[in-house]
User: What shape does this take?
Amino acid sequence: MDAIRCDGLTKTFGEVRALEGLTLTVPEGSIYGFLGPNGAGKTTTIRILTGLARASSGQARVDGVDLAQDGADLARRIGYLPEEPAFYGWMSPIEYLDYIGRIFDLDAEERRRRVSELLELVGLTDVSKRRIAGFSRGMRQRLGLAQALVNRPHVLFLDEPASALDPAGRREVLEMVEGLRGSVTVFMSTHILADVERVCDTIGIIARGRLITEAPRQELLSRYAVPAYEVETHPENAAALAAWAAALGDASWLQGVSLDGHRCRLQVADVERAGPLLMAALAQSGLPVVRYQVVRPSLEDIFLRLVNQE
Assistant: This one.
């Protein structure tokens, strides 16, 4: 069963088309990375799927609920962590999570048990009676994740859950998300490629309101794999490396060249054919090479390639 299914979703704001025929499928129990540049339509999509906005046209189902017909049942089936969660600063985590439990009509014993479980899950037990107003951004994100799980949702929506955190805070949040694998379907919107590559099973890439590809992570890497060589020289030889790369010109075995200071990546059509030709070109150049290797494409390479094409 699919946890989320969108068919031809469109959303317009006046003359602006935020979504244009968005179609995607999220398998039940997966961690789905919804990846795209800022302004691509990620938050608009989440607002529609959580019932906070209406699509201009198209259809969507979340956990079997048709959003056009039965949106009232949706709130009990999902959890939602917005990009910037808001809290009552004068409350403590215990008070706040108990308040959320009351909204979902949990009885007193169930609220006590659930609040204790969640505080332990997100690592806030030791500060459970402190005022939220004094919490760091990372602590607030962890509390936000806890409140999104109070009602034991079937589908959890996370909108840029780690984008404003420092490396330590981001690692903590991602570890908690990864720990949810299999127990809840996670739909995670982000523009941070490393986060997606670390925790997501399936990836959908959106640009200009349209889904441009969707596949399991490893399948995506294999489908768009473009073999490449990386050549690195000493920093003082950066200019010579750039001149050498430019001189390769329109070599038939070369598909693309990118430079990063004293490092050069060369995308090729055929590794076996290009290897000897590349070695010969390097030998003729006289460049002192400190590293030479075949590399597999990263998710960042694929993302930039697809988004730039779009």
Remarks:
- Residues 225 and 297 are 6 Å apart (CA to CA).
